[in-house]
Amino acid sequence: MDAKPQNAALEALIQRNDAARQALAGHLQTLRHRMDLPARLNENIRNNRTLWFAGSTAFGLLVSSFFRKKPPAPAAVPRPRKGLIGLALTTAITLAKPAIKTWLWNEAQKRILPRGTQRPR
């Protein structure tokens, strides 16, 4: 009598052990696949060829832009020489600037400050 219940319980344990071993074997195979980086990279490249091609092309263009020579700066074009009238006007304006600034400053003080206050000099 005792042989059948023990035998049934033993069979159940053996089946449970086999199922656990198969599950562990599957997990181990998945872990080995995840740890094998060259195989995963190869698989990824084969599955996403257009994406890898576009990415490598963009990266190549970006890196090659760092090693390009800059185009030479255009040669400075000499300014045309001024005539005698231009030289005289430029000199007159340069000499008149301080006087114009002083006159504008005095006019601004006259209009901004009230008439009763004295202006510091």
User: Could you describe the largest sheet, including whether it forms a barrel?
Assistant: none
- Number of separate helices: 4
By secondary-structure content and strand pairing, the structural class works out as mainly alpha
Oligomeric description of these chains: single chain
Tell me what portion of residues adopts beta-strand conformation: under 5%
Order of helices and strands: HHHH
Q: Radius of gyration over alpha carbons?
A: 46 Å
What is the CA–CA distance across the termini?
127 Å
Count of folded domains = 2
- Give the overall silhouette: elongated
Could you name the ranges where pLDDT drops below 50 across 5 or more consecutive residues? none
Descriptors:
mainly alpha
Give a description of the structure.
- The protein is mainly alpha-helical.
- It folds into 2 domains: 7-66, no CATH class; 83-121.
- It has helices at 3-35, 37-47, 49-66, 84-112.
- The radius of gyration is 46 Å and the shape is elongated.
